Amino acid sequence: MPGARRIDWIDAAKGVCILAVVLYHFNQMVLQQIDFGQTAVPTLWSLGITALKPLRMPLFFLISGFLASRSITGRGWEQVRTSRVANLLWVYVLWVGLYWLFIEGVIVPLNVDVAAAGAHPETLTGVVMQLVSANTGLWYLYALVLYFVACKLLQHTAYPAVISIGLGVVLHLVSSLWLPSSWWNVATLMNYLFFFAIGCHLQPLITRHYTRGNPVRFVITAVLTLMALGAAWKLGSMDAPGVKLVLALLMVSTTIDLFALLTQRFKMAMLCDIGRRTLPIYVIHKLLIFVLVAFMPEVLYVEGALGNGVLAVTPLAMTLLIGALCLLVHQALNRGPGRVLFTMPHTFRRVAYRTGLLHPAH
């Protein structure tokens, strides 16, 4: 929310969300590709990361909707088309292209097996199709644009909140019940409008009831979350449509209260700083993991108690290291011509202004 005072729990929660994304991809692309034999540590990490699945992206999108609320409900298209739509599309298209060039020019020639890295088209036409269908690891940026535009268009209806949130529920159920698993990219786009719309349209309620946290509500929702997770795990219904929504809402409420309470008592400056700079971590971290894949398996495969000890702390340590390296890379690149990697260049903006496609924000 430009011009508004920063809310610490939002920055802290965003920081945890982006680190959870890095942890998930490190586990998926590195740990799960190594055969550790009978060692239980990787399995425990995978179980914990899986348990966070109902929280990670729902909370991220709810916060994104919360932060976009003023632009959607109180500003005209001409004020937000550049910052909220065009700039995100620019970053999305540019970085998908950079990923393709990196894999094609570095990873493929080195014959590095990047398992779980997603589709890698061999032609530019394939890249364009990947962009449009969101069949890419950077789909979150594309989803943000689609959700913003959808909520902005529905803002002109009689009941924008009801229609936006209701549409989110319908899309979630459709994606869960009828879409084949191979359409994961389409399913992900359909799954999270619900949370973005809640953050957008219930922003006043969230601000009023959650900004300072509620210890009693936190304890109740935390207990309910643990009970629901245990039941869903036991019944094998973690991915059942209604179960996913209930788990996500419980975990999001619990996490917001947790960080609202923590930020009242502690200065979580480092975590808040990470939360204010999620974009560079999001777009850069997989490139670093691609590089790690080349040598991490040999480093991690250590037998005995020492190996288990190293393995127990490795996922968290590597997540923090990758996050820090992303911010250092961003600091080095985000100057001079390098700024075009994270912001639409002024040349493109001027052309768009002159053609009437975009309008300068006032």
UniProtKB/TrEMBL annotation:
<dbReference type="GO" id="GO:0016413">
    <property type="term" value="F:O-acetyltransferase activity"/>
</dbReference>
<comment type="similarity">
    <text>Belongs to the acyltransferase 3 family.</text>
</comment>
<keyword id="KW-0472">Membrane</keyword>
<keyword id="KW-1003">Cell membrane</keyword>
<protein>
    <submittedName>
        <fullName>Uncharacterized protein</fullName>
    </submittedName>
</protein>
<keyword id="KW-0812">Transmembrane</keyword>
<dbReference type="Pfam" id="PF01757">
    <property type="entry name" value="Acyl_transf_3"/>
</dbReference>
<keyword id="KW-1133">Transmembrane helix</keyword>
<dbReference type="GO" id="GO:0005886">
    <property type="term" value="C:plasma membrane"/>
</dbReference>
<dbReference type="GO" id="GO:0009246">
    <property type="term" value="P:enterobacterial common antigen biosynthetic process"/>
</dbReference>
<dbReference type="InterPro" id="IPR002656">
    <property type="entry name" value="Acyl_transf_3_dom"/>
</dbReference>
